[in-house]
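Homework help thread (please don't just give me the answer)

Our assignment gives two proteins as sequence + structure token strings and asks us to describe the second one. The first is just a warm-up. Here they are:
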Amino acid sequence: MYASRVRTSLRGWGGVGAMAVLCALALTFALLLPCTQPRHDDGGGARTVGPGLANGSQARAGDCEDSEAQKQTMSPSGADGLTIDAIKSRTGAKRKLIVGVDQNSYHWGYRNPNTETAQLEGFDIDLVHKIAEDILGDPDAVQFKAIPTSQRIPAIKDGRVDMVVRTMTITCERLDDVAFSAPYFKTGQQVLAPKSSSVKGYDGTLAHKRICTASGSTAYGKLKADRDAGDLPASTDISTTVPNQLDCLVRLQLGEVDAVVTDGALAASQAAQDPTLALKGDAFTTEYYGVAMKKDATDLVRRVNRILVDYRADGWQASYDRWLSATLGKDSDPSKPPAPQYLRKG
């Protein structure tokens, strides 16, 4: 896979701790679209997959009410446009796809300290290289930028990156600020706490407990909304937020917090790093990871969606098997990418 070729250096990054062990949460995935479905043009060079199409534009906060609506995205296309032309017009050493990623999420996007150059590796990194190969003809034509959770949307809106591929959940609120590709992974929020803890899950046992979340994360938004609505004990302390999710693990190990709430895939990864910790209860949300881009980068969104169609047929499974199958299961529901819902170009 492309991750084996990750040689691009990440400028301005600090050292990375070796504390990481693969694990991801086994959650239900939507079924893979049949690879035999015919593709056709919807006009303007768009290659779309027959079933699952509806008229309109990508959902926004006003009409985005559930996880199924969040999956809706623009139809795939192989055509270039203003955004892609600008990327291709970069010359020399700057002719690269600029992508915001994580460097601390083991087997998603992380620096492997056991490699000669501390290579970036993981499931998200494989996808980045696939996108770069399609757009620029070189899977290594990538400039990686470390983006904290809270800076993912600002980095896109400010033009510091072309896209973010960083276990980023598609949400109604975020759809007001950025555009998302079709979903490429399904997960849900889950609680992580010491095995000896009285915490049983996302329930009343969180009363008087200190919870850590990443700043700007869907986990924090869910906790705050539920506490405000009375669905979470009012005594639950959610004041501890950190720039990167891995920092929550450190806080938990130091006894500064009682539990962590984050995406199930990331929570399980953190649990694997410390045998004294465990996932508590089931996932209590359904969420999808997508590639985030500028709202007006329609050509890039549709191009990434086209790439994902091909990637599901050839590449997604190999990457999953390499990075995630050891904990999620090779032949289980998590081994299938979620099926997108394409919207015809309006």
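The one we have to describe:
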Amino acid sequence: MTTQGDGAADEAEAGGFDLGRARVCVIANRGSGRKQGADIAETLREVLQGRVAELEIHGTDEGTALPDMARDAVQRGFDLIVAAGGDGTQAAVASAVAGTDTAMAVIPGGTFNYFARDIGSGETVEAALKIFDAPVLRRVDVGEMNGMIFLNNVSFGAYPEILRRRESIYKRWGRSRVAAYWSAAVALWNLRHPLRLVVRSHGEERRFTTALAFVAKSAYQLDSFGLEGADCVRKGQLALLVARARRPGPLVRSAMRLAMGKSARYQDFNLVCAEEIRLETEPAHEYVAHDGEKTWMDSPFQIRVRKGALKLLVPAESGGRDAA
């Protein structure tokens, strides 16, 4: 995603978005972040009621229901789907919206909200509501892996285990960024088995043994962690980062350098940039993290950029800054 960069990978839509004529469906994940989805949905009702041609608001506590809810809204001809929730919610809705004539708007309601920050909507609900003051449509790239849409990244190795441990820590201590970072440290220290990867891109093959690998689609997320690869994303590519660490100790030290903004590509990660990447993993049945969610999937993994696949409503200042 590149709305805050040079915009090379995004294609601006002509003109703005006529909110007054739009049929709008709000989909709120009540289980996202600090579980304020119901309050966010009510705020959206107050903001949009009377300003749009038609308004429906739907909420759910089950993240697995989100794609079907979004697909139903697309099939019923809604012009705009407003997704309220965290990065997983945004990816789930985008999976139904990408490649259609329906547009999507992002209202952050999660813990990190990388996608909302990446597109210029802001980290808070109040900031994101400015989208509706002077909305602009943009076509943006998304990532796709074996038919699954992702907006920020897909990860292999240690990170899916981090997410698994994070849920248990959240249940005990509540959702917070401190809890998220603590779950990462616990998972890394308990890492036992490295991941073996075969990477094919640009007609070349490379082999790695690593504790962690991830494919990034968010330039903002890479920049925020001090990682290289953001320039690749801004050029419309994916950035595959493979940790050089194979064991817990070096990986934790690498994570500490990241937290202090001292990561160095050649010290901590190998970087591969490409529009299409094929990954083969050992073991073949792999626990994969994608935009904060996790799923068991089977190797090989075909990962690519889908150019301009998502029609996205962004604030006027964001759309104007990067419009072609």
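TA reply:
I won't write it for you, but here's a hint about the kind of observation we're looking for: Confidence is low (pLDDT under 50) at residues 1-9, 319-324.
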